[in-house]
Specification:
The protein is of the alpha+beta class. Helix content is 31%, strand content 27%. The strands form 8 sheets. Strands 6, 7, 8, 9, 14, 22 and 23 form a 7-stranded mixed beta sheet that branches.
Length: 645
């Protein structure tokens, strides 16, 4: 009680909290050793071990002093009860050594996240000599209006530095003369740059100051607290790889800051660079093709499952999360009703439309007793469920007599309605089972990001979900990629890669290796086969030939879209209808190239854009042209009549 009277509780608590915080302590272990008593005084010796995030374990021998007052023992507390050397106002002091954040590269070493100098341009109002000249200079250098600039510093203290906008160091140098006028001041800091206006922003993510709610967590990991840390994408996934480990020197200093004692020093460990599987040129080409549309483009190496491009639209520039003054641009991204931060390539789920006919023909050939030359007749409609439930083909005049193989190339709905009926008679869940073996209805195994499983409906699912039995019509809808079916663009690209490589489903991956500052390489991922398509090589060849005919035969739904392109393409159009009859369908094209020696499989999805042959197929071509440095073929104007689904 006598000590409490002269010691404020807040000061008592602050002494402990400051020591624990400065040393990045995670926990403290105290082990009593001996007890000594001399009349009204006693001492307990103990060993204390501080488990810290930055310095490892700190150990010291200490003692706790006790005194008897009013027949009761109490603690005779001093600051060195916390740590033996904390006497006479002494405190812990830490000198941090923070290694630079490592880079993120594409497969060829092109930068995707690299160091940069960020310059905060601002004004000190009382130093402005010619306000008109200053405003004109800032307008040119920053691209802001005079009104926006003036409103930023109006009413602020005249002697303050008022930040206006963050710009890259290169921009600061380019406008050096303009930004050197009296009243303008620039302050530099180390930052991060995402080239090409944030190429692959959904994959790379971004860094930002440590969120307040996670400050303690990072401190316990040895962070100083003012670093930029990964918030999303590979920047977050690879935080421990990219950031390395902070170093520092822990000392005891006196109340006046003089050095008393060095306790421990830990050297920093540099971060390691992440090399992705992305091809920056292909990625950039896909982003240019998709533009600001809602949709996704995914490209895979057909022989490994490595992700070469993963694009989601609308695009967003992840640099806005680094330029701390760019509040307006960040809010534009965060509040955009088109949800640009949603990774549609991985988390968007859609009916696949006629792309699913690849699975339907496989099931028909393997389980339905059909052959490539099995004949069908398409008058433009199908009454297999009765005239009251008539279903139509996208080609109103019909395809006439057509084989199963040509039915895939021409995307004849009537052919696949009938195949669906045949498969349903084999077993109601036959087509659903084949859909799963082609990689749908489950996550792909991608480890760096969360991807949606989608949905392959079957009789058991429908009964559990809707308390209804499975009807033939459910299989018919599934046969053309409609009904309850939901897939992701990544799943579709993975399926096409398996078709292209003769039947192997690979686990997709986006991080290839990490490399330390000495050039030592640590492989992160290797090609991993996770399944085989349930189809013979002979039947798979039939499908491959039919997909090539989609882009080359007179009856192919996308032949007119690939004329004149000297890179052969095999693929499938898809037009996925929506429950909302007033909404345009989703446009799909999935395929691989070169068709005669498949290297890259790709899926293009554009939400509510129209038919697959009108939008997605021409966009698929644009990606190829951009990748190979060919002239870009303009997208066609919307067709007045159906072109092929």
């Amino acid at each position: 009680p006598s000590l409490r009277a002269g010691l404020a509780q807040a000061d008592f608590e602050r002494a402990y909290r400051s020591a624990l915080d400065l040393t990045t302590a995670i926990s403290v272990t105290l082990t009593p050793q001996t007890l000594s008593i001399d009349k009204d005084n006693a001492w307990i010796t103990f060993t204390e071990v501080w488990h810290t995030g930055l310095f490892g374990d700190l150990q010291a021998a200490n003692q706790l002093s006790l005194v008897k007052e009013n027949a009761q023992w109490g603690v005779n507390w001093h600051r060195d009860t916390i740590w033996p050397d904390l006497v006479s106002g002494a405190t812990f002091a830490v000198e941090y050594q923070i290694p630079p954040r490592a880079n993120i590269y594409d497969r060829n070493g092109a930068g995707l996240a690299i160091p940069s100098t960020i310059v905060t341009v601002g004004v000190i109002p009382q130093q402005i000599q010619d306000e008109t000249a200053v405003l004109n200079a800032l307008t040119q250098a920053l691209g802001l209006t005079v009104e926006k600039i003036q409103s930023t510093y109006a009413g602020q203290p005249a002697h303050w530095f008022i930040p206006i906008q963050d710009i890259p160091g290169e921009t600061s140098l380019a406008y050096n003369d303009l930004l050197s006028l009296p009243g303008i001041q620039r302050r530099e800091r180390t930052g991060r740059l995402y080239p090409l206006d944030g190429v692959a922003s959904h994959v790379i993510g971004w860094v930002s100051p440590i969120p307040a709610e996670r400050y303690d967590t990072y401190r316990q990991r040895g962070y100083r607290g003012d670093e930029l840390v990964g918030i999303a994408g590979l920047e977050a996934w690879g935080e421990s790889i990219l950031a390395g480990t902070n170093g520092g020197r822990l000392s005891i200093v006196g109340a006046d800051g003089t050095h008393i004692k060095s306790l421990v020093e830990r050297r920093p460990e540099r971060g390691r660079a992440i090399y992705t599987t992305l091809d920056r040129e292909l990625q950039h080409s896909a982003e240019r093709a998709l533009g600001e549309r809602r949709g996704a483009i995914v490209a895979l190496d057909v022989q490994t499952g490595a992700i070469l491009a993963l694009t989601s639209g609308p695009h967003f520039d992840n640099n806005v999360f680094i330029r701390l003054t760019d509040t307006w641009s960040r809010q534009m991204v965060l509040n955009d009703p088109n949800l640009p931060l949603l990774n549609r390539a991985l988390q968007g789920v859609y009916p696949s439309g006629s792309v699913f006919k690849i699975i339907t023909i496989a099931a028909g050939l393997e389980a339905g007793g059909l052959t490539a030359e099995s004949s069908f007749f398409c008058p433009g409609y199908w009454d297999g469920l009765g005239e009251m439930n008539r279903k139509v083909c996208w080609l109103e005049t019909g395809h006439g007599d057509i084989t199963l193989k040509n039915g895939l190339s021409a995307s004849c709905n009537v052919t696949f309605y009938e195949v669906g009926r045949i498969l349903n008679s084999v077993a109601p869940d036959t087509l659903s089972t084949y859909g799963r073996t082609f990689g749908f209805g489950a996550k792909t195994g991608l480890q760096e990001f969360a991807d949606a499983p989608g949905l392959i409906p079957d009789p058991e699912w429908k009964q559990a979900t809707y308390r209804e039995g499975w009807g033939t019509g459910d299989t018919i809808n599934l046969a053309i990629g409609q009904g309850f079916l939901l897939v992701t663009p990544l799943q579709v690209a993975r399926m096409m890669a398996a078709v292209a490589n003769n039947g192997t489903l690979y686990r997709p991956y986006v991080v290839d290796r990490v490399v330390d500052s000495s050039g030592n390489v640590e492989p992160i991922a290797q090609p991993q086969a996770t399944g085989r398509l349930p189809i013979s090589q002979a039947n798979l060849t039939i499908i491959q030939e039919a997909l090539y005919a989609v882009t080359t035969a007179s009856f192919g739904t996308a032949t007119h879209r690939f004329q004149g392109l000297n890179i052969p393409v095999a693929g499938k159009t898809g037009t996925a209808e929506q429950p909302d009859k007033d909404a345009l369908p989703h446009s799909w094209f999935a395929g691989y190239f070169p068709a005669d020696n498949p290297q890259i499989a790709m899926a293009v999805l554009v939400e509510n854009a129209g038919e697959g042959s009108t939008v997605a197929a021409p966009m698929f071509r644009q990606v190829i042209e951009g990748y190979y440095g060919l002239p870009i073929t303009p997208l066609p104007t919307p067709a007045a009549v159906p072109e092929g689904d």
